[in-house]
Amino acid sequence: MTGPRRPDVTALELVGGVEKRTLLLADPDPRWTDVYAVHAQRIRTALGAVAVQVEHIGSTAVPGLAAKSIVDVLVTVDDVTAEEDYLDPLLDAGYELRVREPGHRLVRTPARDVHVHVLAVGDPAADDYLLLRDQLRADAGDRDLYERTKRALLEREWADMNAYAEAKTEVVETIKARARATREQRP
C-alpha cells in the first residue's frame, strides 16, 4: 500500500494548540477493557491489514491501577509517514487528529476519552509502551510506585497533559529498566 519512504514531520504539531484539562485519577474500572475492545474493532474495521498491531496500553490496560479515564490504544502500521494509508480512514471512523510529530501520530475521540497512538512497526516506542504495560501488570511494587507517583503529580497544577506526562518520565524509565533486566534474565 505504501510507496517509497518519505520524510516525516520534523516537529511536534498539536492540532488545536495547548489544551488546559482537569486531570483526575479514577479508580480502576473494568469497563475500560470493554471500551478498548469497541475501539480496537472500530480501528481494525477502518484500517484492515494496514493496522499491523492493535493493543490496549497505558494505565487503563493494567487491572487494579487507578488511571485517568482515557483509554490508550497502540496501532502499528508499516510506514507512519504514509498518512494516506491510515489517517483518513481513522478520521472517517470518528477520530480527530490531535498530534503529529516525528514517528508518532495521535488521534482521539471527540469526547477525548480514547487516544489512539499510531507508530511504525519496529519503532522502539511501541515496544516501550508494551514493556511498561506488561511490567505494571506483573509487578505489584512497580504498579504501586507508578500510582503513587501519578497521585503526587496530580496534586500540582499542569499547563497541559503533556507536561504532566513528561513529569512521570523518571519513574517510567526506572520501571522499564527493571522490566528490561527481567526480560534479559529469561532463558
Structural description of this entry:
- The chain is built from 6 helices and 6 strands, in the order βαββαβββαααα.
- With about 190 residues, the protein is of the alpha+beta class.
- Strands 1-4-5-6-3-2 form a 6-stranded mixed sheet, with helices on both faces.
- It is globular and about 40 Å long.
- The model has no long low-confidence stretch (mean pLDDT about 90).
Structural category: alpha+beta
Proportion of helical residues = 40-55%
Q: Which segments are poorly predicted (pLDDT under 50) over 5 or more consecutive residues?
A: none
Quickly count the helices. 6
State the distance separating the first and last CA atoms: 38 Å
Strand order of the largest sheet: 1-4-5-6-3-2
Short characterization:
The protein is of the alpha+beta class and 187 residues long. It has six helices and six strands. Strand 4 and strand 5 form a beta hairpin.
Which tags fit this structure?
single chain; 187 residues; alpha+beta; 6-stranded mixed β-sheet; globular
Helix and strand arrangement:
Layout: E1 13-14, H1 31-47, E2 53-57, E3 71-77, H2 87-92, E4 96-101, E5 104-108, E6 114-120, H3 124-138, H4 140-153, H5 161-167, H6 169-185
Parallel strand pairs: 3-6
Antiparallel strand pairs: 1-4, 2-3, 4-5, 5-6
Helix pairs in contact: 3-4, 3-6
